[in-house]
Amino acid sequence: MFDSMRDRMGKVVGELIETDSQTAVVLVDISTNYFRDAFKKYPNRVINLGIMEQTMVSVGSGFALEGFHPIMHSITPFVVERPFEQIKDDFCYQGLGGTFISIGASYDYGTDGMTHHGPGDVPILKVLPRMQVCVPGTSYEFETLLRQTYNNGAPTYIRTSFQQNEVSRPVRFGQLHVEREGRDGVVVAVGPMLERTLAAVEPMDVTVLYATTIAPFDAEILREAVANASPNVVLVEPYYEGALVQDVTHALQATPTRITTIGVPRQVLDNYGPATQHDEALGLTVTGIRQRIRDFLES
């Protein structure tokens, strides 16, 4: 059984603090328990600002201007939506690198209501120039993607979730992983949606591509997969559905293609409950995914 992505985050970031003197960490009263010793040992580059998320991003950009690799972390809406303008201006506009790590995913904090929901994180960050976006499916994949990107000079968002796949894949930043091949279409499953998608399409003759890097998107592997299958493309995403449609249409602009999207619908989720209950209500279960893919392929 994997440790949680949040636990792995604490461990790996803690190691980076110890081994890389250019790593800086800026927190806002979230996950501070992982860094108690680091606060004391490295008070000049591991700091907690309290609930000041916009300031967190601006302080992180200050570290970047001084040559550090800043890592900023909070719950999804507090690290993405609240300081969105600071990410745009302080990092993307100035051409700085830094890592933004969220917890909470779409509705992992579903018992706390919409203030703690974050299904819009990936769609809105994808519009920013230079922004890199990763959605790992296990804690091991999280570590792999973090180590591959944290000091690459670009602003990078890594989305963690409570739900994980049972098996890690050999993921690499910027690449789609070919999970299986078929003839009737191509299904792109993102992060923690992979294994329920595999279960859903088990009786179908389709290719399944696994995406853990959302931006930049791997157009080459997608084109190769579609060239060897019917041009029916299904996107199964754990955030607001359709965030990858533009990337898919751009990659396949020379190929007549049918696309459908499965993910969190763009509606207010006004029920309270754990993520599994939201998945059930929204049809993001094995049964629900299977029915929607079957209906699409047969239409």
Topology (elements, then pairings):
Blueprint lengths: L4 H15 L3 E5 L8 H6 L4 E3 L4 H13 L3 E7 H6 L2 H10 L4 E6 L17 H5 L6 E3 L4 H11 L5 E5 L17 E4 L5 E5 L3 H7 L6 E5 L1 E3 L3 H9 L4 E9 L4 H7 L6 E7 L10 H8 L3 H13 L1
Parallel strand pairs: 1-2, 1-3, 3-4, 4-6, 5-6, 8-9, 8-11, 11-12
Antiparallel strand pairs: 5-10, 7-9
Describe this structure in words.
By secondary structure, the protein is an alpha/beta fold. The protein is globular.
List keywords for this structure.
alpha/beta, Rossmann fold, single chain, 299 residues, 2 domains, 37% helix, seven-stranded mixed β-sheet, 12 helices, five-stranded mixed β-sheet
Global shape: globular
Indicate the structural class.
alpha/beta
Strand arrangement within the widest β-sheet reads 2-1-3-4-6-5-10
**Count of DSSP E strands?**
12
Name the beta content range.
15-25%
- How far apart the termini lie comes to 40 Å
Helix content: 25-40%
Radius of gyration: 19 Å
Largest sheet: 7 strands, mixed
**Runs with pLDDT <50, length 5+?**
none
Order of helices and strands: HEHEHEHHEHEHEEEHEEHEHEHH
- What's the overall average pLDDT, rounded? 96
In short:
With 299 residues, the protein is α/β, with parallel strands linked by helices.
